[in-house]
Amino acid sequence: MSELESVKKSSEAKPSVKSDNYVTQNRQTNINGIIQMASFNPNLLTPQHILQLQRTIGNRAVLQLLTQKPVQAVEQVKEEEEEPVQGKFETVPINDDPSLEQEADVMGAKALQFVPQLKQPVIQNQMDFAQTQKKEIVQCAKLNLRKENKTISGVSNFPSRPTSNLSGTQGQHLTAYVTFEDMILNNVRDKDVPGAAAALVEILNNISELPGMKLKSAQYLIPYIKSTISTLKTNADDAEKIGECIDTILSIRNKVPGTAERGTGGGHGESKYSGELVELETVLQRKEWKKSWDEDRVEQQCLYSMWRLLDYDPSEPKDEDDFENIATKTLTHFLTLRMAYPATFEWLTQRKSYLFTYLEANRDTSGMPFPRLKPKTVDLLRDYVHPKL
Fold first, then answer.
1. How many CB atoms lie within 10 A of CB 76?
2. Which among 28, 332, 66, 27 has a CA at the least distance from the CA of 220?
3. In the prediction, which pLDDT does 161 show?
4. The predicted structure's pLDDT at residue 231
5. pLDDT of residue 360
6. In whole angstroms, what separates CA 304 from the centre of its chain?
7. Does residue 1 lie in a domain region?
8. Residue 79 CB coordination number (10 Å)
9. Basic and acidic residues composition bias: which ranges (predicted)?
10. Dist. CA 101–CA 104, nearest whole Å
11. pLDDT of amino acid 25
């Protein structure tokens, strides 16, 4: 696996400084317009509008807008005097910290009371309208199509990283964010546009089954999952709309509870491990194994890379609830790997090569997760995760 070449990220994903300034101004203008619309009548908001507001002003401010009476407008301030919207509202930190979890669940439950008021046909019609307005689209992913057969060669112009489950900060991702982008790329590459749409529907269905989606604080995401699935099915042959849906999918996945925790650990070369896994996934999907590759060496490097995409160092659990918290986050990593690298995951399974077996044999290797857990606890994690895959 050491012979695998690094996969270069498309230069199209890096806009110029001039473009960044234009995008920032456009985004601010769009947010101001959405806030004014919400102030006039919250029922006019589409799921995309609400997602944009959550990215910018936080869950608590969004809930405040949704619960106010129509025509109680937020005062319009002259553009030259306007402060950034982010500074005007207090955001709600949502994570698995016990002191915050109850508040997060309450906020999620309250938001649920208002989002369902937008009936499904209305949601679909308004989303379709919003997606046709170029002013609403700051940046969206692009499916790169081959001229000869209109199949997808790759995905470029991935959006800037959306807000995570921790309002106001990215926090420390457990499973690396780049894995979510790989999840998109590896499921649409070499398919035609309708095939890509169907694959993305399956991704959304799988996201809805992640452990974090069972929490009350995640229920506000369900309407967005359903409306995005509807958009994908209705516009299965529209590459541009599918690109817009990719942005929404990445935003949804990054907001699933348990995705990130408070703290700043910094990166540790995740793109390198991601690149190696994407190359292996491509080879396995196309059934074009390279003669120079030794399967045993590739297998070991693959297992190492998959663990390196998990940045998680919990302390030894004190009780069953503590263990359950660690176990569900570990299971989420496995399920995300299976979504992101499906052919590779299946290849390892057929070879009876398991991630926990590798971890148990390499606990002292630098960069491995769970360094503070006892061997017996790691065994219990394995017994918890494997039956649920």
1. 11
2. 66
3. 86
4. 98
5. 97
6. 22
7. no
8. 9
9. 1-17
10. 5
11. 47
Of 184, 152, 154, 144, the closest CA to residue 9 belongs to 154
DSSP helix/strand/coil, 155? strand
Domain range for residue 34? Answer: 11-261
Distance CA 361, CA 259 (A): 27
Residues 245 and 339 in one domain: no
Residues 252 and 296 in one domain: no
Q: Indicate whether 300 and 358 sit together in one domain.
A: yes
Long-range Cβ contacts of 365-370 (<8 Å, 24+ apart): 365/304, 367/268, 367/307, 367/308, 368/307, 369/307, 369/310, 369/311, 369/312, 369/313, 370/312, 370/313, 370/314
Same domain, 140 and 231: yes
State how many domains the chain has: 2
Residue 31: CB atoms within 10 A of its CB come to: 19
| Assigned domain for 5 exists | no
Position 34 scores a pLDDT of 75
pLDDT confidence of residue 220: 94
- SS3 call for 279: helix
Interaxial angle between packed helices 375-385 and 320-340, expressed in degrees from 0 to 180 and rounded to the nearest 10:
60
Residues of the chain with pLDDT under 70: 1-30, 32-33, 36-44, 55, 58-60, 63-139, 167-170, 263-267
State the burial class of residue 344 (Cβ atoms within 10 Å of its Cβ: 0-12, 13-18, 19+): buried
Which of 261, 279, 296 marks a domain boundary? 261
pLDDT reported for residue 11: 40
Tokens 């017994």 correspond to 383
pLDDT value at position 53? Answer: 74
pTM above 0.70, yes or no: no
Q: Which residues contact 8 (CB under 8 A, 6 or more apart)?
A: none
- C-alpha neighbours within 13 Å on the C-beta side of residue 340: 27
